[in-house]
Amino acid sequence: MSLRFTRQFSSAQASLFFGKLNKQLTATKPKPHVVTTLNKPIGFQEPPKPTDNNGDQRSVTQKFRDFMDRDKNTERQKELEREISKSGMYDVYTYRKTNGKLFLAPPSYWRAEKSLFFPNMQGEDLTNGKTKQTCDVLQGKISIVRIYTSQIGEKSSQSFFKVAEDQESFLSKSGYEDFLAKYPRSQIIDINVTENAFKASFVQLSKGNLRSLNHPSRHNKYFIVPKKTLSLDLRETLHCDNTYGGFIYVLDHEGKIRWAACGEATKEERDLLWRTVRGLEREYKALFPAKE
Which residues lie across from 147 on neighbouring strands? Predict the structure, then answer.
């Protein structure tokens, strides 16, 4: 009798275990990536604050309480399942399949009243080792923001800044002088997302080289941001959740996203980016004529 009960109990437990395992495997199975045009504005409803996206600020006591909280554990498990579904191999496959065009740029820039805010991100710049907030530099200027995690993404995003064959890229030292002369109300922001501690260490060691490559006025506009401070929800909202992609965002003086693109620039996309910048500069001039 006892042996029969043990066998039945073990069978039931095994069935429950494999049922849960199958459910988790199903949850972590990645969905096929669908390339869509960004017809609707992307971003966040609320303006960014310096306290946003600063990493895990919980105390040890709060972490223990959260660990013992069943609802929060369930929520964390779902978040981990989503993270696992976006593994490195999935990113490689998706990047190759789309050739870096993870979404298609909108055909024109979004109106200010419809546009949404770019979030705050925290990281070091090239001036010193202190932590800075991106929201502090995104106000009062038109900003062309590029986000990348890999060299592939960084290189593909460069293609938006080479506007003519006989001109230097706006990212170069001399090219940035031309950029400032042509677009005096604008700035270029780099957000280099470090995926892990190894890459963060490598970027730290490369700071001197990065300073030498970038115009001095851009040193406080080049941010090194740990990926762990950027939630999957944030990355999905900005459509920059692929490790190998290079992403471009054009922001107005309020920090609202007015246009976005990714991957290698087509001629049409490059022309549209700079048409957007010129349009936003005209908007700014009309709003603040006294500053001219």
Answer: 191, 247
